[in-house]
Amino acid sequence: MRPSPPRTVLMLQGPPCRFWRELGDGLRAEGFRVLHVGFCLADLALWRRRGQRLWRGRLADWPAHLSALIAAEGVTDILYYADRLPYHAAAIEVARAAGIRAWAIENGYLRPDWLTMEPEAMGALSRFPRDPAEIRRLAGDAAVPEATPRYRHGFAREAVSEVVFHLAMVLGRPIFPNYMADKHYPPLLDYLSWLRKWSLGGAAVRAAARAEAACRRRDWPFVLLAMQLQSDYQIRASSPYGCLSEMLEDAIASFAAHAPARLRLVVKLHPMDNGWENWPARIARLARAHGVADRVLAIDGGSLDLFLERAEGVLTVNSTVGIHALRRGRPVLALGDAVYDMPGLTHQGGLGRFWARPEAPEPELRDAFLAALADRIQLRGSFYDPAGRAAAVAEIARRLGKPERHWLLCRPVEALGLAAQARPGGTADAATEPGDLGPAGSPALALRQQRQMA
Q1: Own/partner pairs for 164-168, CB < 8 Å, 24+ apart?
Q2: DSSP class of residue 4?
Q3: Residue 47 neighbours by CB distance under 10 Å
Q4: What is each CA distance from 85 to 12, 147, 283, 294, 310, in whole angstroms?
Q5: Is the pLDDT of residue 4 over 80?
Q6: Cα–Cα distance, 224 to 310 (Å, whole number)
Q7: Range with the lowest mean pLDDT among 263-272, 276-285, 339-348, 403-412?
Q8: 201 CB contacts (<8 Å, ≥6 apart)?
Q9: Distances (CA, A) of 75 to 9, 11, 68, 78, 130
Q10: Closest CA to 113 of 305, 378, 405
Q11: CA-based nearest residue to 345, from 129, 148, 141
């Protein structure tokens, strides 16, 4: 009998570190044929292995080029990081048409030391089920994952990798003039914003310390609003908000109208926020405008674990903080499209009711959700810790070799809102770029409208 041909894995853009190169090496060691497409100078510098192709053409021509490459090389699987990057969003459609698998490799839902390996995409486009009965079926006898981290890395390692990657991307612009980075902030200005933030950091640290002390003393009951990054793809692609200011307006207006007078709203900034938006000033203006300046507090820093333990509820767009809160039994309301948002797990009764009557998660469903998530689309590992990288490489190779258990297609394509829709503020007929999800007619907009109701 003839031996079957080796599986051919095409790797597109990876995370801004050496992980992608090590993953390619690990897949080759397991018998896979590995190809790589680089889109910018940073990709070229990080890969440094054979099998690399460069794409310097226009984004509009990329799908046809990719389709021809798949056919010529016998590609069986595509891997990429950041599934909403325009090149990767287009790759999903091309892979479907070619009848091959495409996988999103990302930071994990169960952070800090988990990675995601999910069919096609995350967030609003995730195939992971949102039906409690299906969650219980998928969980089977899988164990609830332990919460103690195995792999750790310092902030500096991740920050330096990001800076080097994006500087190389900028410096390589003359060689890759057509590259679309699709970044919310220009990289150089992003880093300059960090300098300003660090220069004012003392006041933020003191304010967070005061809030922590009040939290420990239980000076007041509060709901925690966990901010995300404005640059996060899960805001742009999996929520109805064009800017997080819109989310803050919704939340603070509802808080002013419906929250009991005893309750406070603590808005915790994302630890990687660069300070560009000056969220504390915006939050203070909104609170004053709605007459709740003395009950809304913005903090930049402090212990997330402490605030989650003491909060009466947690509000977010679709942050993984929501999963950490569910683990602690806290009521959670997701204002966007989140993989954990479903009846019995998150609050479904509207934003107006959340302040006084939040719905807590059902412990049995929560455990089934965590078990199914970890067993099917999460894997233990790290992009930055050496031991974590080795563990992740081995597990990704194993799953690519036997993908059936992990190739979940539970949500039909028609339910994922994949038809071209407008950007926030536009119309359903407006032209869009590949992979855009606008609010017109989208499930996320319907969700937002439902949850603003009292």
Answers
A1: 164/16, 164/42, 165/16, 165/17, 165/42, 165/46, 166/16, 166/42, 166/190, 168/40, 168/41, 168/42, 168/45
A2: P
A3: 19
A4: 11, 30, 30, 41, 37
A5: no
A6: 9
A7: 403-412
A8: none
A9: 6, 10, 10, 8, 31
A10: 378
A11: 129
Beta-sheet pairing, 101-107 with 378-380: unpaired
Alpha-carbon separation of residue 36 from 29, 193, 205, 365, 393 (angstroms) = 16, 33, 43, 40, 16
- Mean pLDDT over residues 329-358, rounded? 96
Nearest CA to 129 among 446, 368, 351? Answer: 368
- Pairwise pLDDT comparison (269 vs 274), residue with the higher score: 269
> Does residue 416 contact residue 423 with C-beta atoms inside 8 Å?
no
Phi, psi angle pair for 235, to nearest 5°: -80, -45
Q: Under the phi-then-psi rule, with left for phi > 0, alpha for psi from -120 to 50, and beta for the rest, what region is 437?
A: beta
CA distance linking residue 125 with residue 350, whole number of Å: 23
- Any residues with CB less than 8 A from the CB of 441 and at least 6 apart, and which? 421, 428
Contacts of 219 (CB under 8 A, 6+ apart): none
